Amino acid sequence: MAQDDKNNQGIDIEGMIAAYGGGAISKYAVRQIVYRQGDPASTLYYIVNGTVKVTFNSEFGKEAVIAILGAGDFFGEGCLNGDFERRTTVATTSECEIARVDRAVVQYALIDDPAFSKLFIKFLLARNEKLKTDLIDQMFNSSEKRLARILLTLANIGQAEQSSVIGLPINQELLANMVGTTRSRVNQFMNKFRKMGYIDYGSQENSGQIKVYHSLVNMLLDD
């Protein structure tokens, strides 16, 4: 989930805040911290536009990128499940407009607003499914296949699309963190994918962006 078209799913977050109070929409600069791991958890967030990364820091000081989120995504939903502290850190990867809604307002809206309730439940189910897929991917697939799946997910390629450009700031260091491998290994895989015609990047036409072709799916099917 990280594409701008999700903003068309029917949620009027500004109208919701105006109707119930207990929230605000704020603008964030690039690489600005929305909240840190360990901060108090009392609000739900909704990305109006822009992208953020969600990271987790272990007690040994190791950081892992959990997710890249974009317009139409919620985060901080743990506050609705009894979490008193944030379990992750969220920072922007682009300029963002993000809505903050108090926990009590969300709890009331889930009962009073069927459209919001339906959208939020749909989001939670999709998030749960992605977490299961990520766990299976981490346990059974190679780093190369994990990278291929991440690129396809970030490009949001459907069955009918031949190619798509990843529409958010991404680099090999961030990809390595998401895959759980080294930057040099990611560079090796990226060069291999490009030589096989599965991706294109670094060309003048793409202006530094990564173009992903649907044929990259073959890497996931290859035993």
Give short descriptive properties of this protein.
223 residues; alpha+beta; Jelly Rolls; 2 domains; 4-stranded antiparallel sheet; 11 strands; 38% helix
Give a structural overview.
Residues 1-8 have low confidence and may be disordered. The protein has two domains: 4-138, Jelly Rolls, CATH 2.60.120; 141-221, Arc Repressor Mutant, subunit A (Orthogonal Bundle), CATH 1.10.10.10. The protein has 223 residues and is α+β, with helices and mostly antiparallel strands. Helix content is 38%, strand content 23%. The protein contains seven helices and eleven strands. It starts with 12 loop residues before the first helix and ends with a helix.
CATH class of the largest domain: Mainly Beta
CATH topology assignment of the largest domain: Jelly Rolls
Strand order of the largest sheet: 1-8-3-6
Structural class: alpha+beta
Concise structural overview:
This protein folds into two domains: 4-138, Jelly Rolls, CATH 2.60.120.10; 141-221, Orthogonal Bundle (Arc Repressor Mutant, subunit A).
Task: Give me the secondary-structure topology.
Layout: H1 13-20, E1 23-28, E2 33-35, E3 43-49, E4 51-57, E5 63-70, E6 74-75, E7 89-92, E8 96-102, H2 103-112, H3 114-140, H4 143-155, E9 163-165, H5 172-179, H6 183-195, E10 199-200, E11 211-213, H7 217-221
Antiparallel strand pairs: 1-8, 2-7, 3-6, 3-8, 4-5, 4-7, 9-11, 10-11
Helix pairs in contact: 2-3, 4-5, 5-6
